[in-house]
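Appendix B. One record, verbatim.
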Amino acid sequence: MTELTYKFDAVNALFSEWNKPDSPGCAIAIIHRGQPLYRHCYGMANLEYAIPISEKSVFDIGSMSKQFVAMCIALLSRQGKLSLDDEIQKYIPELRNYEYSITIRHLIYHTSGLRDYLTLMDLAGLRFENEYPDEEIIDLIARQKELNFRPGEEFLYCNSGYLLLAEIVKRSSDQSLRAFADESIFAPLEMKNTFFHDDFSEIVKNRAVGYSPVENGSFRINMSIFDVVGDGGVYTTIEDLCLWDANFYHNIVGGCGQDLIEEITSPGELTSGKALDYAFGIGISTYRGLKTIGHGGAWMGYRSEMTCFPEQQFSVICLSNIRSINLTKLVRQISEIFLAEEFTAPEAKNPENQQQFIEIESSEMEAKSGFYRNFKSGAIWKLAVQSGELMVEVSEMRFKIAPTSLRRYRSVDIPFEICVEFENYSQPSPVIMYVRIEGGQRYVFEKIDTVPLDTEQLADYSGDYYSEELCRHFQFLKECDSLILNRKNSKREHLEVVSRDLFKGIFHSFEFIRNENNEIAGFNLGTERVKNIHFVKQ
């Protein structure tokens, strides 16, 4: 057995779970020096007709599409049809003029401060279906009275930015995004099965069906009939993405040479001068001491991941039609197989990651239980001791963290690593919780003193509330000892009391506002990508 054969067998073993005639799966490409080193497919593209995934299977790649929109913008800039420093209202005048200007460059780097339109649609009760023209979604963005932050001062991933970039491509080129991208990128690279899927009713040859697992071990179809493109929407194949990868090293797009590639792979900056880890729809990072560029995607039953090690000219691309797969982890495992001798840093990103879990008294964990809030993002985490284990609840995710010391904990049994450190937990001053996800940025949370509310106090919050920005009513009901959120097209939601006037939902926080008479007058709603949506009590 040759060394390469051994490596290919090791890769196949990683995907054995999906390499079955009754499972969706994955198509992969491993590329070295612009040439495919190994391409392979696992599982089925269509379970109803028993069609296996092939190298020609077409997948929805979700947010991995952003790099193609950004490339269109870079090309239009070089053609003199726009400037990256143009204010976005020059092309989309129906957008609100905020106190601070927002430029095309801000949209590219996710530094605009705009609220995320996918979150806004959910809050407004708009289904992700082909019911809304682009103009209606742009109007929803335009109705927002506030930004999440001053443009250029922060980075916050924002799908609104790339939806608007798609509209700017359309208005500055007099072509649809699909037509411009095909003419300027996909046709020159002979990516014959790649396009922006802007008509959900279109028949797509060799399309892999998207699936989600269900509890009994089977699957259900999970497909989109939402054909808004820009932040996502590219359909493509493993074969075509190999051509896209090769172009990073020998660019032929736009007749611009390698300086175009240098532009789209160079990280942006904040106003402060701090470098971002994001370029033109491409993430910039390191893994095991080696530079990486790439992006992932997740939409409905599809997952995608493309990671390039540019200095080694080595890339891994994975396209999948099953919602539950963790392609980031699999891509890293593949890179471990082929680049083991190239890595210059150990696998662990933090020294504490190597520490073993220890046994501690239950009282030590109890001291850390409660609600924690990140005052910058508004995110609220709940920690609680259950059956002798410290559990974390955030959004719909629930996982265990186990101690490596009295202060440090690490996530258990989830596909990515979360490290948590506590400060002041045995002192009267506020407990501080530091969180690192996958060894990245450190997030600071402060423990909130929980104040129980009796039935009469809960009744103060009940009633109907309205948001002009969403054109939507939220209704709060007091039932027994709980406050219930009731809104059209959404499941009823039990809210948890965090403190007086602050409640936690599954995805949202609700901070109620009182008037001069100490009566509830409204509330501000916050999520990860949308801050301070104001509702007025009716």
